[in-house]
Write a structure and sequence with these properties.
Layout (H helix, E strand, L loop, with lengths): L1 E2 L1 E2 L7 H11 L3 H9 L2 E2 L12 E2 L11 H8 L9 E5 L2 E5 L5 H21 L3 E2 L23 E2 L2 E2 L7 E2 L2 E2 L7 H21 L12
Antiparallel strand pairs: 1-6, 2-7, 3-4, 5-6, 8-9, 10-11
Helix pairs in contact: 1-2, 1-3
Length: 207
C-alpha cells in the first residue's frame, strides 16, 4: 500500500510535535524556536497588511528540517502486521503472503489501525491517492487486483505506481521507468548536440 497524506506539512499539530521534541531535546528554548515561534500576515494587494497571527499547525515550508520534524511527529505509528517504510511524508506498508485474501485482510486491518493514529495526529489520509499494488511473477494472475478498503471506501489499485521518483511494475523489472528515463536523456543529448554544432555551436567552456 502506498499511503498518501493530504497537505501533510501544513497539518502538523504544534502541541503534539512540541511534546515529542521535548523528549529528544533537553533545551526548551530550542524546541520553541523550531516549532512555536512562527507567525504569518497577509496583504490585500493595496499595501494594507493584516496583524501577525501565530501558526498553530504546520512545519516550516522549504526548510531542510521539515522532513526530519515530520519523521519525529510520526515516529510512534502503531505496530502492524505489515512492515512500514517511511521517508518524510511518503509512507508504504507491505505484507508478503501467497494467499490473496490473506494479503487483503491484513492490509485492510492495518490501514484501519494506521488511520486511527493519523486521525489522532490530525493528519488526513487521501482515499483517492492512496493506492494498493502487488508484485509477483505469476503471469496468469497479471490482471488480478487487490481489493482494499478504508473507512468503507474502496481504495484504488495501481499496477505501476511511482515512489520516490521511480516507477515500479508488477515484476520489478523497472522497464517503464527505464524507458521514460531513456526518452528524457535522449532529448537532453539531442539538445547538447544542437548546441555543440561544429561550425557555429557554443564552446566547450559554455557547454
Amino acid at each position: 500500500m502506498f499511503v498518501d497524506l493530504t497537505a501533510t506539512y501544513g497539518t502538523v499539530w504544534h502541541c503534539g510535535l512540541t511534546c515529542k521534541l521535548l523528549r529528544l531535546l533537553p533545551d526548551r528554548h530550542m524546541v520553541m524556536e523550531l516549532v512555536g515561534n512562527h507567525s504569518f500576515t497577509f496583504t490585500t494587494g493595496n499595501n494594507k497588511w493584516s496583524r501577525f497571527r501565530r501558526l498553530k499547525n504546520s512545519v516550516p515550508r522549504g526548510s531542510a528540517l521539515t522532513p526530519l520534524l515530520f519523521n519525529i511527529y510520526t515516529s510512534d505509528l502503531p505496530t502492524t502486521v505489515s512492515r512500514k517504510y517511511a521517508y518524510a511524508d511518503d509512507l508504504v506498508i507491505m505484507y508478503v503472503d501467497g494467499d490473496w485474501q490473506a494479503v487483503e485482510g491484513v492490509l485492510i486491518k492495518d490501514m484501519a489501525t494506521i488511520g486511527e493514529c493519523l486521525q489522532t495526529l490530525e493528519v488526513k489520509l487521501s482515499t483517492t491517492k492512496t493506492v494498493s499494488v502487488i508484485f509477483h511473477l505469476h503471469n496468469k494472475e497479471a490482471k488480478r487486483e487487490l481489493k482494499v478498503n478504508f473507512n468503507n471506501v474502496a481504495l484504488p489499485f495501481c499496477s505501476e505506481p511511482k515512489y520516490l521518483g521511480t516507477t515500479l511494475d508488477r515484476t520489478l523489472t523497472y522497464r517503464r521507468h527505464l524507458k521514460s528515463l531513456h526518452k528524457k536523456l535522449t532529448s537532453h543529448v539531442a539538445l547538447l548536440r544542437w548546441l555543440a554544432g561544429s561550425e557555429w555551436g557554443a564552446g566547450a567552456t559554455t557547454l
